Description:
The chain is of the alpha+beta class.
Amino acid sequence: MRRAFMQVDVFSESAYGGNPLAVVLDGEGVADAAMRTFSRWTHLSETTFVLPPTDPRADYRVRIFTPEGAGVTELPFAGHPTLGTCHAWLERGGRPRRPDMIVQVCGAGLVAVRRAGDGLAFAAPPLIRSGPVEAALLAHIAAILHVEAHTIVDAAWADNGPGWVAVLLRSGEDVLALRPGVVDLDLGVVGPYPPGSSEAFEVRAFFPQDGASTEDPVTGSLNAALADWLLGTGRATAPYVARQGTALGRTGRVHISRDAEGVIWVGGHTTTCITGQVEL
């Protein structure tokens, strides 16, 4: 059966500068095996399938898949798939129950998405693990990054699902200079730019894949976790903009804000790059 399909660029103001996402807009009736096969075939970091909501408070349900070696893993939550799926659902004619909010349900539960300027923003999920990393892990991280341990300003668990460990370096330039070895954990590295810069931080995301290291172009879940950590420790004030993907030739920009209730919102631009149908 043919299904409506979009490929969306997320977190860049110009098309093809951010992180791509494949979205199948009618996933109802598609077998799990077919979802996994198609997700592996796209060769993108994530592919999503839109389904009718399983919670009466939600506008739609989304399933998120990522290739992992010869297999495919289903994720309970991911940032750029949340924004890209919402963009595709709205562009296809989706009408949210609330005019000021779109609500998706996924493996992690309900996630609120709102329109933010020219883009979309999701409410950052709470951290499920936080706190400083132990000394042995810090030494291991320094070895992976090929830096001296004393050049790491701070490091902490910032796990909101994917298991991120956050590492703060002295500057954005130090982040861009990294040439890491093989990573064996989900590692997010951030460094500040001087006050008054157009972006407050440079961010890079590394994770293991097939025995090697992969760098993600622009990462919503990591930026959400970093915002929780940086704002909570007083190292950042909201709103701010983080830059990611520079080392990969991308132009990712992630907009962080915090509302009066203290909810952190992670936003960015979304652009449809491919639209059509896929045979599943």
